[in-house]
Design goal:
Helix content: over 70%
Structural class: mainly alpha
Distance between the termini: 39 Å
Number of helices: 6
Number of domains: 1
Number of strands: 0
Length: 186
């Protein structure tokens, strides 16, 4: 392979990673509207990055064996998870309790990370069929999504102070809308 082909593949992977990471950025902005500490933001970004390494890796490995039938299923599952998270955030904002019932820690963080990384599984399926360089692909996907998640969470965290009690409704609405976008092709 010559240098032009390598640079072309690198550019293509960076653009794909950016596109996949924008999911995490957008959802991170919504989730950042919940009051989060910098330490939580750091761990959320690491977790999202790890999922954006693991999911496309599984997709690449399976994609080398199977067809891309699972791509649509993964996208719909991710959309359903985001809709459920969004609805939960909206409903919990109307309760008198402090904080959402499902926050981005523990199991909630796993659900959050899974919901934004399922689309990278379907991309991994396609790349596995295509025969992309596995290590390069997953490292680029992981790092880009981690950085974009941090950016989204930090921006959401700043805006949260301005919006006060309405920030959780807005955050839930963002997650809900993004989930519906994944489920419904419009």
């Amino acid at each position: 392979m010559n240098i032009e082909n390598i640079l072309g593949e690198l550019f293509t992977l960076l653009m794909m990673a950016f596109a996949l990471g924008m999911d995490a950025f957008s959802v991170g902005m919504g989730m950042g509207l919940i009051k989060l500490r910098l330490r939580q933001i750091f761990y959320i970004g690491l977790t999202i990055g790890a999922f954006h390494i693991g999911m496309p890796l599984m997709g690449i490995l399976i994609g080398r064996v199977l067809s891309d039938t699972f791509g649509t299923i993964a996208t719909v599952i991710g959309g359903v998870l985001l809709v459920l998270l969004g609805l939960q955030m909206i409903l919990s904002s109307f309760k008198k309790e402090e904080g959402p019932a499902l926050s981005p820690v523990g199991f909630g963080l796993i659900v959050f990370a899974l919901s934004v990384s399922l689309d990278s599984f379907s991309v991994g399926l396609s790349l596995g069929i295509y025969g992309a360089r596995t290590l390069l692909t997953i490292l680029i996907f992981g790092v880009v999504s981690m950085v974009l998640t941090w950016m989204g969470l930090l921006i959401g965290n700043r805006v949260q102070g301005w919006l006060g009690m309405y920030s959780e409704v807005l955050g839930g609405s963002i997650l809900l809308a993004f989930g519906l976008k994944l489920i419904l092709p419009f």
